[in-house]
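Milestone M4 deliverable, item 7.
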Amino acid sequence: MDVRRLIDVKNGTASREIFVDRDVYRQEQEQIFARAWLFVGHECQVPNPDDFYVSRMGEESVILTRDRQGKLHVFLNTCRHRGMKLCRHDEGNTRVFSSGDALPLSDVEKTPCDPMPNFERPRHCSAESSQHG
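Output delivered:
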């Protein structure tokens, strides 16, 4: 789509279509958000070990978190096993993101989303397990 037809540079106006047109949206996702550095969050939003903050990169939900050594990480907020959202809260503190799905013991070593024995569910998050830090 040629978005130039939606913008009148001379008069300083833009058509409302740029805000609602699916083709414009798709083009923005491909040409802007998929190709550029994106602001996910600031380190002050996760000041302590195991703090997390959920943000977005284009259409993808991501988790900004600080490990126990103080290093920052950003992960897709999606379980590799079943595609479920790992964390349903905006921010908090937890070592593990888990849904507590009970897999048969024989499947534990075969899946990237292992349930953790004797795991106490964090009060902030739920979905498949993905240990960070």
